[in-house]
Amino acid sequence: MSTPFYVSPQQAMADRAEYARKGIARGRSLVVLQYADGIVFVGENPSRALHKFSEIYDRIGFAAAGKYNEYENLRIGGVRYADLRGYTYDRGDVTARGLANVYAQTLGTIFSSVGEKPYEVELVVAEVGETPEQDQIYRLPHDGSIVDEHGSVAVGGNAEQISGYLDQRHRDGMTLAEALKLAVQALSRDTNGSEREIPAERLEVAVLDRTRPQKRKFKRIEGRQLVRLLEAAGGSGGSGGSDGPDSSDGPDGPDKTRSGGDVE
């Protein structure tokens, strides 16, 4: 009988982490920024069907980079968790911190499991508060750890370079147009330092807007409204997309069942 090949636990975990990081890096980057009236999600996404960003609950948004089928399962699980907790207890008991803990347990269990490969995903869970000081942004890497972020965060692709760019230029109290312009500038920078133009029709943008009168604060920004914001900020967003100044799906915002995904 042959002797089984031995791999130290440290090496096995390092190999799993490297595998997951490479999968995440193949996805397009996205950024999440705080601005004066809430939190904005911006990413390059040529697909109109597969979304990077989604609503989880009243004041909570979800963003993900990596493999679409894997984080779509996580998104659906998060919606179910939030709906069940809000129905069983109170809507105020559904928080980004609680949701981040649930995702961390799931990702950590999968990452440490020998029987299945680690998820090639990196998540951002954000909650808009009554004031900017109460906003919460959590980044969850593939291994299930939780990173409490402030101001700005980038995941996927060349996230490290984008994060450095944002850290130097992001400031508190930015308008939505200013935050959108900064996000597009950060996403436009290639790994070699050159810049490229990202037209409006290739951008996916959503916000958690604390000033909305509805309980549900999530809203997608697209079409003419997105072009106007890019022009107001001096961006070169181009034209295209759907008509209409507001992309909400009805008076209470978008449908929760819309997928929040990344396109590799």
Automatic annotation (TrEMBL):
Chief location category: cytoplasm
Keyword set includes DNA damage: no
An annotated GO cellular component: proteasome complex
Gly residues biased stretches: 234-243
Pfam family for this entry, one: Proteasome
Cellular localisation: Cytoplasm
Compositionally biased intervals (Basic and acidic residues): 253-264
Segments for region (Disordered): 229-264
Keywords: Cytoplasm, Proteasome
Coiled-coil spans in chain: none
Gene3D superfamilies: Glutamine Phosphoribosylpyrophosphate, subunit 1, domain 1
Pathway: Protein degradation; proteasomal Pup-dependent pathway
Activity regulation summary: The formation of the proteasomal ATPase ARC-20S proteasome complex, likely via the docking of the C-termini of ARC into the intersubunit pockets in the alpha-rings, may trigger opening of the gate for substrate entry. Interconversion between the open-gate and close-gate conformations leads to a dynamic regulation of the 20S proteasome proteolysis activity.
CDD domains for the chain: proteasome_protease_HslV
Subunit structure: The 20S proteasome core is composed of 14 alpha and 14 beta subunits that assemble into four stacked heptameric rings, resulting in a barrel-shaped structure. The two inner rings, each composed of seven catalytic beta subunits, are sandwiched by two outer rings, each composed of seven alpha subunits. The catalytic chamber with the active sites is on the inside of the barrel. Has a gated structure, the ends of the cylinder being occluded by the N-termini of the alpha-subunits. Is capped by the proteasome-associated ATPase, ARC.
Role according to the record: Component of the proteasome core, a large protease complex with broad specificity involved in protein degradation.
Family the entry assigns: Belongs to the peptidase T1A family.
Official protein name in the record: Proteasome subunit alpha
